[in-house]
Design brief:
- By secondary structure, the chain is an alpha/beta fold.
- The chain folds into two domains: 129 residues, ornithine cyclodeaminase, domain 1 (2-Layer Sandwich); 172 residues, NAD(P)-binding Rossmann-like Domain (Rossmann fold, 3-Layer(aba) Sandwich).
- Helices cover 33% and strands 23% of the residues.
- The structure holds nicotinamide-adenine-dinucleotide.
- Nicotinamide-adenine-dinucleotide binds next to α4 and α5.
């Protein structure tokens, strides 16, 4: 069995490797060569922790396994470690034997950023110039860094519920050599691409904030009850997702489905666009919305990729098991 510790991931994994892994597993999902197992997420009644498993099997990439982990809200204060904790386990699909144990914290951020980037590559207008960010927390920095590689953006505009956090994303924009401007939500109408990545349970992005022709990737809603954007926006948009089953239950689409504004059969898996079985954006006026809920197969894909890199670089730890 191979171990790739969390401390090695930053040196090994690149944004482009994460992008390729996620794009290819989304394609495999749409062609029915890969499927996610039902998600388990439990409040364990200890340390206010939410713990669970996301798993799946990708027959194309021959990747089988799960990510185990969750959220421990007291970690930082009590133990000096980050609140989100996860570990990915890969198994040999031929024998069921454990193949690898991989640190999942940084990989989660990279695979989530890769998902919105894949959606931008396939759905945003080619002439997109203004990148809009709603959110400025931990994930937002990864999201923006990856998004800026998808189009030659000339400006980043950002809004955050806690304005004091905006320097987090301003720094990323500046590092990429793109000017940054803080705006009110009404100012988001200038954006050609928007990423929302917040933990809100009340919608902040309203339909009026998104202009015709914009691509919006909604990445924060991954739990029942969370909501970043007004349900009416999904009614106006062509809605894409990583996985329809998650989109309508724990994703942004849960609210539009509940309010009968869209139907599950109208939500398109992004993999169909990647595979060319759905045409994706059809006009410059169309609003495309990607509901990125985060699937287990994304975690397995990036973990498999990092194990390969760790072996190549001689840093995978081999143990008898
Ligand atoms: P964080 O705690 O670092 O940042 C939270 C963000 O939400 C900040 O921008 C904060 O200002 C904003 N926010 C908080 N309360 C708000 C409110 N009431 N209204 C509007 N904005 C509010 O968290 P993070 O690690 O950046 O994660 C952000 C979200 O992304 C979380 O909901 C997390 O569960 C989700 N997430 C999704 C995926 C996925 O695959 N889709 C993966 C990882 C995390």
């Amino acid at each position: 069995m191979l171990i790739v510790p969390e401390r090695e991931i930053a040196n090994l994994m690149t944004r482009s490797a994460a992008f390729d892994a996620v794009e290819s597993v989304f394609a495999a999902m749409a062609s029915k060569n890969a499927y996610n197992f039902p998600v388990i997420r439990e409040a364990i009644g200890h340390e206010d922790a939410l713990y669970g498993f996301k798993g799946g099997f990708d027959k194309q990439g021959m990747t089988l396994g799960l990510k185990a982990g969750g959220y421990w809200p007291n970690n930082l204060e009590k133990h000096g470690v980050i609140n989100h904790q996860s570990t990915i386990f890969l198994f040999d699909p031929d024998t069921g034997m454990v193949k690898a144990m991989v640190g999942g914290n940084l990989l989660t951020a990279l695979r989530t950023a890769a998902a919105s980037s894949v959606s931008i590559k396939h759905l945003a207008r080619k002439d997109a110039k203004v990148m809009g960010m709603v959110g400025a927390g931990h994930q937002a920095t990864f999201q923006l860094r990856a998004a800026l590689e998808q189009r030659p953006f000339e400006k980043v505009i950002g809004w955050n519920y806690h304005p004091e956090m905006l320097p987090n994303i301003e720094k990323v924009a500046n590092e990429a050599g793109v000017p940054f401007e803080a705006v009110e939500l009404d100012g988001m109408v200038e954006a050609d691409v928007v990423i929302s990545i917040t933990s809100t349970f009340e919608p902040t992005v309203m339909a009026k904030h998104i202009s015709p022709g914009t691509h919006i990737a909604c990445m924060g809603t991954d739990t029942k009850g969370k909501q970043e954007v007004e349900a009416a926006l999904l009614g106006k948009a062509t809605v894409f997702t990583d996985e329809v089953a998650q989109s309508i239950t724990i994703g942004e689409a849960q609210h539009a489905i509940y309010n009968h504004m869209i139907r599950p059969e109208n939500i398109v898996q992004i993999g169909e666009v990647i595979n060319g079985t759905h045409k994706g954006r059809t006009s410059d006026d169309e609003i495309t919305l990607f509901d990125g809920t985060g699937v287990g197969l994304q975690d397995l894909a990036v973990a498999a990729s990092v194990v390969e890199l760790a072996v190549k670089n001689g840093v995978a730890i081999e143990v008898d098991f």
